[in-house]
Amino acid sequence: MERGKMAEAESLETAAEHERILREIESTDTACIGPTLRSVYDGEEHGRFMEKLETRIRNHDREIEKMCNFHYQGFVDSITELLKVRGEAQKLKNQVTDTNRKLQHEGKELVIAMEELKQCRLQQRNISATVDKLMLCLPVLEMYSKLRDQMKTKRHYPALKTLEHLEHTYLPQVSHYRFCKVMVDNIPKLREEIKDVSMSDLKDFLESIRKHSDKIGETAMKQAQQQRNLDNIVLQQPRIGSKRKSKKDTYIIFDTEIESTSPKSEQDSGILDVEDEEDDEEVPGAQDLVDFSPVYRCLHIYSVLGARETFENYYRKQRRKQARLVLQPPSNMHETLDGYRKYFNQIVGFFVVEDHILHTTQGLVNRAYIDELWEMALSKTIAALRTHSSYCSDPNLVLDLKNLIVLFADTLQVYGFPVNQLFDMLLEIRDQYSETLLKKWAGIFRNILDSDNYSPIPVTSEEVYKKVVGQFPFQDIELEKQSFPKKFPFSEFVPKVYNQIKEFIYACLKFSEDLHLSSTEVDDMIRKSTNLLLTRTLSNSLQNVIKRKNIGLTELVQIIINTTHLEKSCKYLEEFITNITNVLPETVHTTKLYGTTTFKDARHAAEEEIYTNLNQKIDQFLQLADYDWMTGDLGNKASDYLVDLIAFLRSTFAVFTHLPGKVAQTACMSACKHLATSLMQLLLEAEVRQLTLGALQQFNLDVRECEQFARSGPVPGFQEDTLQLAFIDLRQLLDLFIQWDWSTYLADYGQPNCKYLRVNPVTALTLLEKISREMKDTSRKNNMFAQFRKNERDKQKLIDTVAKQLRGLISSHHS
User: Fold this and answer.
1) Other C-beta atoms within 10 Å of 191: how many?
2) Is 98 part of a structural domain of the chain?
3) pTM of the model
4) Do 331 and 366 belong to one domain?
5) Could you tell me which residue ranges the Exocyst complex component EXOC6/Sec15 N-terminal domain spans (predicted)?
6) End-to-end CA distance of the chain
7) 761 preceded by cis ω (within 30°)?
8) pLDDT of 583-642, one tens digit each?
9) Torsion angle, CA of 548/550/554/558, rounded to 10 degrees?
10) Rg of the chain's alpha carbons, rounded to an integer?
11) Residue 767 is part of which domain span?
């Protein structure tokens, strides 16, 4: 039973497997059916599978038959249609055959044309190949043609670049052609030609900038001047938010395009043709005047050719030579400012070019090279300026030279060159400028003093009065109260000299501008120069006027008055200097003005000259004295010459009203003493060997006239009989002889309160001997003692006795 169930189960599994295989056969492609069939034969039930397969085939046949029966009528209709189509197909075949025959006949011409077309295609292919070859060679030829054009138009750097492209890019592509071999052989020659021509361009450029360096420098200095003026305007009128550009930023750097398409002629030589601009137009940049492309081209060419070092050495060597030429000043440079200006322009132009080369090329020049050149230029320039400026005698030229040097220094400082030594040298020129100013002002003072009338300034109106007061600081309440016309106490040279001193201070201040000095340094410089003006120049001018031979007492008196007022004005000069320098006089180390001393010395010299002049005038009057020392007549009035002398002294001392009292008193006392001494000398001179008592009486009248003048007080301020003491020696001597008071004299001699204390025994003896000689001269016919012989003898004995006693006094005094 169980075996039967097992067999049944196996039979079902086999049937299921066969069913699966059949489905797989039905659904699988014929090419892939092999593995399926193999699985059948691998099993043991292939007989049963065949039965199963037959059964499946019969089933499919029955299904096909059913389907055919269903579509049979359609099939019959299709066959009928097909038979009809066969007839039409035959007709079509006939038509195609006929058409083919006609086509073959007509196609013979086409075949011939196609052969011809084939030949054309072959030619076209050959032409195309030729064109391709030519297109490959054409760039080489074009580059070579471009190279020749660039050489012809002197665009050497682009030509060199073209040559490189031709050699390394184009020629290798067509190197198998013979013409390429010719080009390759010619390339070194072209390089050498480019090298030579570019060096020629550089030489022309160097020669041209040497000739035009003054124009370049002039433009740079104009720009510096404009910038400085602009800076001054900005400082005077500050604007909120305004930003000042540096001077160098205002310069437009010339932008040179190396690959320039425009040809540059050799004759341009690096200098552009720029006409002179008007002063009110904007000045072009200094570099705008120069075309640096020859330098750039030559530098790049030599760099490309591997000879950059050779080029740099040549350029620096040539520029050093040019620097030495530029720094050689012309021999007559000191004669005009234009000589200095041209010299500075050339130096500035040289260094502007070098600075531009430094900043626009890499390594052609370096900072060390520039500094070396500048050190050389600075030393030679300073030496030249020291030499040539020493010849300048015009202060205006020295001042203009200083301004030019400052502009020169400022211009170069813009380009980064150190200029401190130039400003140090300007301090040296400042001393020379002071000397030239002193010489100039010596002439000015001389002209002022020579042209002055030495009379008080008359004023007839308020306008004139204010004008004078405006020129010179003078205040006098009493003079202001007086009605017009009136006079200032001083003459015209006082305001003129005062204003010229101020002008001198202004001139000194002008030189100190832009020297970067502190206010204290400027103040010290002005004060020292002003002191030299006062103590040396003005003092010498005043002394020369005072010592002139034809100077009069009136002029001397006026000089004393003038110097007194100028002395008082010194404090205003101090204030004037303080105002313009803003340095207070109380500041430490501030130099004081020596004007007070100068005017005091001049006044003292004038006073001494007055004393001397008065004495000379007195001597001139005394030369007119004509005493008859042998006269016996007794006169009753003073001599005419003495009366005139006294009148002169009165008028002279009347002019002394404006003098300081001490000066007038000293002058008056000096004159009286000199008059008394001269009269004494006149009385005792050796040529007068004899004199009479009558002549002595006349001489006494003259002395009395002098004493009367002294008592009249010609100059106020003397105490009682002080002035009369000048004549005391004469008075006592004359009283002794006229009163014949020898007993008193001899008795009281040597006592402090004696009557004839001022009479010297020697003087008395000299005068007594003259009288004695006259009395002994018996040959004189009109002798007043001739009728009284006895009295004469008695008096002669008395004279001899007195003379003997006087000699005894003299001997005892000497012993």
Assistant:
1) 18
2) no
3) 0.64
4) yes
5) 52-221
6) 213
7) no
8) 776 664 566 776 677 778 887 887 787 788 888 888 888 888 887 778 776 667 888 888
9) -30
10) 67
11) 747-814
